[in-house]
Amino acid sequence: MCARHPDRPTGLRCTRCDRPACPECLQPASVGQHCVDCLAQSSRTAPRARNIAGASRTGKSVLVPGLIIANVAIFALTVAMAGSLNANYDSWLFRAGALVPAAVGQGEIWRIVTSGFLHIGPLHLAFNMFALWIIGREVETVLGRSRFVAVYGVSLLGGSAAVMLLSNPLGFTAGASGAVFGLMGALVVLLRRLKMPAGQVLTLIAINVGISLVIPAVSWQGHFGGLVFGAAVTAALLYLGVGSPNRRRVQVAAVAALTLLTFVLIGLGIALI
Fold this sequence. Notes:
Blueprint: E1 26-28, E2 33-35, H1 36-45, H2 63-82, H3 92-97, H4 101-105, H5 111-114, H6 121-143, H7 145-166, H8 177-193, H9 199-214, H10 220-239, H11 247-272
Antiparallel strand pairs: 1-2
Helix pairs in contact: 2-6, 6-7, 6-8, 7-8, 7-10, 7-11, 8-10, 10-11
Enzyme class: hydrolase
Membrane topology: Multi-pass membrane protein
EC number: 3.4.21.105
């Protein structure tokens, strides 16, 4: 009798567990046929598919839409507080969160992070969010969510560190550009690792670097820092510990080291003010 259907006589058996099973409860296997219980057990114990960075494969991007929603919501709040679409930098929230090196030197350390979620006017917001949508989703789906957070966070901090070191201490900087440039650097490293052409992304980076250098109001320092640290952390995630059972630990250590480096540079920037 079938083990799952006691009322059904059968002469068939599962080649894995050797229990009797009716035709309805059996599925063809590479060797013989397996019952539905064995198939269910094997699907639970089978190793999950891993991506190139060693993470479980991510079906679709969820962090990038979340980041965009957060940036748009914060921008809308600054507009409402300032009563102006283009002069939203007059809001209390913007003044309290923008990256001002001298203010960071006075202990307002939160500015190195909050500045990455503030934008000056709708065009600034639109450009950064469009770039984040196009590039960020690719990076998130290939690297996985936790590693995307690492790349985005280290890129943001790297951009802030460069601003602290190289910018006017009394000037202010805002925008997700540093993190977005970090994602551009990450995408170049990803394409090289996958042995795919990176010419288009490199051209895009070159154009944006040119714009950063030509237009005085654009923070080339933040872009440069984000690009360098974004590429560095992605290279660490993709190349360090490959084939090692401790690969995840190696990756965590590398991300921690790069994060620490950004804070060392920020501290150096404070000392030079």
